[in-house]
Amino acid sequence: MAVVASTVCGMSGAASASPRVLVSKALAKGVTYRxxxxxxxxxxxxxxxxxxxxxxxxxxxxxxAQIGTFARTSTMGTHAGALAAINGDFFTxxxxxxxxxVSNGMPVLAGQPGVxxxxxxxxxxxxxxxxxxxxxxxxxxxKSSVSILAWNTKSPNSNDVVGFSTYGGSYERPSRNECSAxxxxxxxxxxxxxxxxxxxxxxxxxxxxxxxxxxxxxxxxVVLSSRLTGAGATFIKGxxxxxxxxxxxxxxxxxxxxxxxxxxxxxxxxxIQYPPGCSSDLCHRxxxxxxxxxxxxxxxxxxxxxxxxxxxxxxFYELGxxxxxxxxxxxxxxxxxxxxxxxxxxxxxxxxxxxxxxERPVANGLVILPGADTAxxxxxxxV
Length: 383
Prior knowledge:
Helix content: under 10%
Radius of gyration: 22 Å
Number of helices: 3
Strand content: 35-45%
Number of strands: 29
Structural class: mainly beta
Distance between the termini: 51 Å
């Protein structure tokens, strides 16, 4: 591990007033870790740079096979066989990421849009912005279609249709007093015509409208549910066993099959999004985790220590300023506070989580894999 005494602007080591580079280490070709220090506050920061076009890949990870189980960032990184990992989105009980989340080409959660980061499946660039996840179901037999209001996040209201998959586990699933259609035998994923989402066909297994029974989600299946009456119920009741349903999603993030979200952009097109005098509770100095994209397409992941005299944390303005100093043009604030964690293979957790109990279990994260993501599908061309 090399200890240096330079300052950094971008991850190239070019001169800047702050921060100083304390440690620099290449984790793989195109993947660099650096420990940074800005003595003007003071604050300790930890940055990962991922350059596209190398053998390494980015991937999103959930804390478990289904929502409902928290996991430490170090555990998720280890289980993924990753080079490095950072914590992801904010979360609510039971280990549910707060905002939309897509993994391996299929929605895991959709409800609160938030601000999202997505990296192209071809590993050639990423997107950060407010791109709500739009999910739609179509019945080709009747040429009728319906928007899916939520995915593994809530029960249907009024005329709505919501979706459930095996990611919902025992916490998010169809209930009584609903009309539900279970869809099975999914075909291969295909890009949509705009290359900003994907789709697959499924077969209707069973339709059940009942005040006393609920339709279960089988392994690999999807269940669409509505209230017993209303526009959503009309669509569900129009489905018959053996029919095909076309299920699609789009988020205006070209070529993306993995997406993770946070609550706000701190840097947009090179402009810091919060003023120095921001007085909101969210703006107070805290430990932070952020992800940004440079003009050259590199991804910068930053974790910031806070809540101690050695490192006071950053405000949103300061976080935007530091991400800009690292070369980012767009940057997103992920979950911070006691959740802020960076783990590196062979080094362990490199920052100092602020919880007295140490590293906090979280709901999802982002990892850098040493090679190809073998679990990630390669969507077929649209038809």
